[in-house]
């Protein structure tokens, strides 16, 4: 892959972030392509949190949808999306591979609760799952099992993010935990808004953390047979997320009233040692 030209308007992962360190683990040309993919992902996903008027949000989403379809004729207006389209063509990807992102935002604009795990996983798969699948393809992975594993990793990363950002999301009246799981533990959405980690809420979060960790571990394991040069960024993201879940557990699941993070140095160490272990 030839290094794509990154437009000045393209937002790069901020230094210290998980994606920043993960992208350091791949060659420059691949890194540039992934930077474009992540920029488009963030721009489209931001509709959910930055646009309060439902009509305006749907209009913005429709515009992005049309832009993605226009990639087939190389007629997209957005410079970052247009550059990403060229990367897609280099790897034999169709613009339709981006449409899961549109679906995920559309789901967010229509609902703020998920009845069960199957519904939540479907939502995660449409957005983060499809983006990680596209990332794997841009890294040069072509085997169906490898792409499937990357998609599962995307789902697991999103499940982890939901646990970490539970307090922030609940404050916006969004509960990214299955309602049947809340009911099973005797927890109501209004209980989460109290920002107190009661024993039932702690049990709920322990259950969801265990499920997310299992999903991360399974996806990472499925990626290990493939070349480290192509999987290292994905494995780094998974390893950092697993460490974050452990940190959340050590903090006694205090995600309702505080932001639990890993230090940049720790993320750097995890991403480097993860890569070194894969190369050994």
Automatic annotation (TrEMBL):
Protein name: Terpenoid synthase
GO molecular function (one): transferase activity, transferring alkyl or aryl (other than methyl) groups
Xref: InterPro entries: Isoprenoid_synthase_dom_sf (IPR008949), Squ/phyt_synthse (IPR002060)
Species in which this protein is naturally found: Thiomonas arsenitoxydans (strain DSM 22701 / CIP 110005 / 3As)
Lineage: superkingdom: Bacteria
Organism lineage: Bacteria, Pseudomonadati, Pseudomonadota, Betaproteobacteria, Burkholderiales
Assigned EC number: 2.5.1.32
UniProt keyword terms in alphabetical order: Transferase
């Amino acid at each position: 892959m030839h290094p794509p030209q990154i437009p000045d308007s393209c937002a790069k992962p901020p230094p210290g972030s998980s994606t920043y360190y993960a992208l350091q683990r791949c060659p420059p040309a691949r890194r540039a392509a992934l930077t474009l993919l992540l920029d488009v992902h963030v721009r489209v996903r931001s509709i959910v949190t930055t646009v309060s008027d439902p009509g305006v949000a749907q209009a913005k989403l429709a515009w992005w949808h049309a832009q993605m379809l226009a990639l087939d004729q190389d007629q997209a207006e957005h410079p970052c999306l247009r550059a990403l389209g060229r990367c897609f063509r280099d790897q034999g990807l169709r613009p339709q591979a981006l449409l899961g992102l549109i679906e995920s935002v559309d789901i967010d604009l229509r609902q703020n609760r998920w009845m069960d795990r199957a519904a939540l996983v479907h939502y995660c798969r449409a957005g983060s799952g499809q983006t990680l699948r596209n990332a794997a393809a841009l890294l040069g992975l072509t085997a169906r099992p490898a792409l499937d594993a990357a998609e599962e990793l995307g789902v697991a990363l999103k499940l982890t993010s939901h646990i970490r950002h539970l307090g922030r999301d609940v404050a916006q009246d969004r509960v990214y935990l299955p309602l049947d799981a809340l009911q099973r533990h005797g927890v109501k959405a209004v209980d989460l808004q109290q920002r107190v980690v009661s024993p039932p809420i702690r049990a709920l979060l322990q259950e969801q953390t265990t499920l997310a960790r299992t999903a991360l571990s399974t996806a990472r394991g499925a990626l290990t047979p493939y070349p480290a040069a192509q999987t290292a960024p994905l494995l780094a993201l998974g390893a950092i997320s697993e460490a974050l879940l452990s940190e959340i557990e050590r903090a006694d699941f205090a995600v309702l009233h505080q932001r639990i993070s890993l230090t940049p140095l720790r993320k750097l160490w995890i991403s480097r040692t993860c890569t070194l272990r894969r190369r050994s």
